[in-house]
Design a protein that fits this description.
- The chain has 285 residues and is mainly α.
- It contains 9 helices and no strands.
- Helices cover 81% and strands 0% of the residues.
- Helix 5 packs parallel to helix 9.
- It is elongated.
- The two termini are 31 Å apart.
Length: 285
């Protein structure tokens, strides 16, 4: 009965901890501060434009807003439509980041629950039998599990960069191109600000078709002139679909990561304790 109560309290405490951590992260998320800044900002007068409050920093969105503000101070103009478009993209980005945080926290919760339950079993078993397992053996088990737990953030960071790093670069280029489509600048200047020359650094094969289309759009615009707005918006929709597909892949990789860590670090620790316990028990007989 006490064991059941212990497990219930333990699981409940972990759930509350994860939910509290998640809420804390969301509350302190700079994306929310940036969205609040966009809601308050108005293009009324040059005086308000010069005295605008400090801009919260979040990914490439803040950089694009600073570009628009700089152009407005230097050349005039109202870029409210561009800010509204950025705000819509920021809201979608916040939702994606929230899902990623929930996946990461869920993964941490499962790993920590496995560790706590394993050691609850180990300590409970040692208290029920008169066998004394050598302390250094228990330390070895704890160190082996600690190695697995240390690998978890490294693997999460690696796969996040693998699936979303190049997507972030493309989002930055497309948002800058869309935001500056009506700015009285030469197309070559706009493409330089968007850093389209960095398309060659994108290595994700699943994004090559978007990269090729963007290169063709830029080349056609420089050669023939005209607006690229519709083509860029189409690419943004296509990239949104590609991002969702990458998100599904990332979620599947998390499942593989959890199974691999369980099979290599946590389940063997449990089996090793059983082996140590039986070995010491046989030695006493």
């Amino acid at each position: 009965m006490l064991s059941i109560l212990f497990y219930l309290v333990l699981i409940g405490g972990l759930v509350v901890w994860v939910e509290g951590t998640n809420s804390l992260i969301i509350k302190r998320n700079p994306a929310e501060d940036l969205e609040a800044w966009l809601k308050k900002f108005r293009w009324n007068t040059q005086q308000e434009l010069k005295a605008c409050p400090a801009l919260p920093q979040y990914k490439f969105y803040s950089e694009i807003i600073e570009i628009l503000l700089g152009l407005a101070r230097r050349m005039g103009g109202n870029y409210q439509d561009s800010l509204l478009f950025l705000r819509a993209g920021l809201q979608i980005d916040r939702q994606s980041e929230k899902k990623l945080r929930e996946l990461n926290l869920g993964c941490w919760l499962q790993m920590l629950m496995i560790i706590f339950l394993t050691w609850a079993f180990i300590l409970g078993a040692l208290s029920l039998v008169e066998v004394k397992v050598a302390p250094f053996k228990l330390i070895l088990l704890a160190l082996w599990q600690a190695i697995g737990l240390t690998l978890l953030p490294c693997l999460l960071r690696y796969f996040r960069g693998k699936y979303f790093g190049d997507i972030g670069k493309l989002w930055k280029m497309l948002f800058i191109l869309n935001s500056l489509v009506k700015v009285p600048l030469s197309r070559s200047e706009v493409f330089t600000m968007a850093q389209v020359q960095d398309l060659k650094h994108i290595k994700q094969k699943s994004l090559f078709h978007i990269v090729d289309k963007l290169k063709d759009i830029c080349h056609k615009t420089l050669k023939q002139g005209g607006s690229y707005e519709e083509e860029v918006k189409y690419l943004m929709e296509e990239l949104r679909f590609q991002e969702k597909w990458h998100f599904d892949l990332f979620e599947k990789r998390l499942t593989v990561i959890k199974l691999a860590l369980l099979a290599v670090f946590f389940l063997p620790s449990y089996m090793a304790f059983i082996f140590f316990l039986l070995g010491d028990l046989m030695a006493m007989m």
